[in-house]
Amino acid sequence: MRKLLITTLLILTAWSLPAAKPNILIILVDDLGYGDLSSYGATDLKSPAIDSLMAAGMRFDSFYANCPVCSPTRAALLSGTYPDLVGVPGVIRTMNHNNWGWLSPKAVLLPKPLKTAGYHTTIVGKWHLGLESPNRPNERGFDFFKGFLCDMIDDYYKHRRHGINYFRENEKEIDPPGHATDLFTEWAIDYLDDRKGKKEPFFLYLSYNAPHTPIQPPADWLAKVKAREKTITDPRAKLVALIEHMDDGIGKVVAALKANGQYENTLIMFSSDNGGQLNVGAQCGNHRGGKQDMYEGGLKVPACAVWPGRIQPGSRSQLRALSMDLYPTACAAAGAKVPAYVEGISILPTFLGQPQTLKRDMIFVRREGGRLYNGQDYHAVRRGDWKLVHNHPNEPLQLYNLATDPLEKNNLAATEPQKYNELKNTLRKHFQRAGQVPWQKPSE
Question: Quick check: pTM over 0.85?
Answer without folding.
Answer: yes
